[in-house]
Amino acid sequence: MLESLLQFDQTLFQLINGEWHNEFLDNIMPYWRDKKSWIPFYVILIGFSLIKLKKQGLFLVLGAVLTIGVCDHLSSQVIKKNVERLRPCKDEKLKTTIEVRTLIRCGSGYSFTSSHATNHFGIATFLIFAFAGIVGATRYLLWLWAGTISYGQVYVGVHYPLDVIAGGILGCICGCLIYLLYKRVLRWDESRRLKKT
Question: d(Cα 132, Cα 194) in Å, to the nearest integer?
């Protein structure tokens, strides 16, 4: 069962990384999946939260930071270091059977789970719930955003599809749990303010 799953994973990797490539995505994906490319988006998001939501916005920003911290720690320090799966761009055995196209520096560390996928799906999920009633249905595009970044990790050759799928699931779980904590903090703050009045 596990062997069949890993074989399917490699086959899907070969399609995404190899057969489905084109010049447009070759130029875009190395930047699209790079977290530095999204710094302006994060700055706008923080500014919007603090200006529009005031104190609630501060809690929201802190919740988002906590989400990324928890996601990154679980993926990078807990799961990767225990599973120890080689990245496709570092797996010499894989390279004897298929061509691995590496469009960026391969990077250190292990492959499973993808921290990019965990972090981006975590923050997307947290924000989708946190922005309910504030931002309309367009907030669900955050999952598409996280999905395309995760796809990019496979496309550039640094992760397998299962790495990003598992990372996405882990991120969604973390995002939900941090959102529940965020809601509890908001209720606590509201009850504290009511007691003062």
Answer: 23
Q: How far apart are CA 157 and CA 134, in angstroms?
A: 38
Q: Which residue has the tokens 């965990």?
A: 118
- The residues that bridge with 135 in the sheet, in sequence order, are 132
Contact predicate 175/130, CB 8 Å:
no
Per-residue DSSP letter, 134: T
pTM: 0.92
Number of domains in the chain: 1
* Distances from the Cα of 34 to the Cα of 43, 57, 104, 105, 140, angstroms: 16, 26, 10, 12, 21
The single-letter DSSP state of residue 89 is: G
Looking at the domain assignment, is residue 94 inside a domain? Answer: yes
pLDDT digits (tens, 9 = 90+) for 72-103: 999 999 999 999 999 999 988 888 888 899 99
In 3D, which of 194, 122, 105, 117 has the Cα closest to residue 162? Answer: 117
Identify the CATH number of the domain in which residue 106 sits. 1.20.144
**Residue 8 lies inside a defined structural domain of this protein:** no
Is residue 130 situated within a structural domain? yes
Q: Is residue 5 domain-resident?
A: no
DSSP code for 35: G
Cβ 113 vs Cβ 166: under 8 Å? yes
Buried b (16+ CB within 10 A) or exposed e, 10-29: beebbebbeeebeeebeeeb
